[in-house]
Amino acid sequence: MEGPEKMKNKKLTIVLGGNVGFYLWSMGTFSAIEKNLNCKIKRISYFKFSTSIKGVMIEFRICYNPTKDNNYKKRAELFALNEKEIIPPPSDEVAKKIKSRNILFLGLCGGLKGKKSEIFIPEEFNEIFFEDVYIKQEEILKIIPKNKIKIKNALKGEMSGKNAKVLTTNLTLMKDTIQDKKIEYLMMLGNNLSKNIDVVEKESYPIVKKFRNVNIGVMLMSSDILTIKRNVMKTGKFNPNKDVFNKNCSKAIKEMLKNLK
User: CA 17, 112, 161, 206: dihedral to nearest 10 degrees?
Assistant: First the structure.
């Protein structure tokens, strides 16, 4: 690890996939980071926060969905109605605003195998886009991940976590986004995807694509399992293990700070 003087002019950008209220209040992620890393996080704008640790300027940016398509726009309407919150910008727009050579992406994902609250340090990323807000039964077995890219994850070997093949989608894969809201169809989709994919989420691909050639770390935690009926995501019952997630977010930040470029 470099000395304090050499670290002073360096910067770390942390991108969180999700929404402000979720990390700020529901999960208490920012409070946990402040406690674990002995820092004070300030809100710069609605979707941007910052702090400083040992002279390193750290900015936090929050994004939602990979791009501003029809699914994003429909979700924005629900945000205003249900969450009483402004939807964050999509990750492809956030990526364009980042001016840093040290990037850390943190987020939750749906597992296709294994168990809830597992930590992943992935190095392969894929994407797929759905035009409709519902996935039809006849489409389930035809869904194929596309545009595979690989990275050297800066967290690999520095903290515990499984390698994984990630799929970024523009649609949350849950019962409510499947035709007739059938869990059986959701599990069928999960089993089909599990042939080539380990976890599914909604924001990492554009960030990884833009910054794959710089110092980038990615850490994900599974909040639900698409192939196990009792562990699929349910509307109004989304309760990830915040202690495990927040602990590993703090760990990931510590490890990134040791190896800034």
Answer: -30
Q: Is 60 exposed, middle or buried (0-12, 13-18, 19+ CB in 10 A)?
A: buried
Between CA 143 and CA 69 the distance in angstroms is 19
- Token reading at 77: 């309407």
- No. of H helices and E strands in the chain? 8, 11
The answer to whether residues 127 and 169 touch, using CB atoms and an 8 Å cutoff, is yes
Residue ranges and CATH numbers for the domains of the chain are 4-125+149-164+203-226+237-258 (3.40.50)
Residue 3 class from Cβ within 10 Å (0-12 exposed, 13-18 middle, 19+ buried)? Answer: exposed
pTM: 0.94
Residues 83-130 have pLDDT tens digits of 778 999 999 999 999 999 999 999 999 999 899 999 999 999 999 999
What would the pLDDT profile of 157-191 be if each residue is shown by its tens digit?
Answer: 999 999 999 999 999 999 889 989 999 999 999 99
Rounded (5°) CA angle 225-172-242:
55
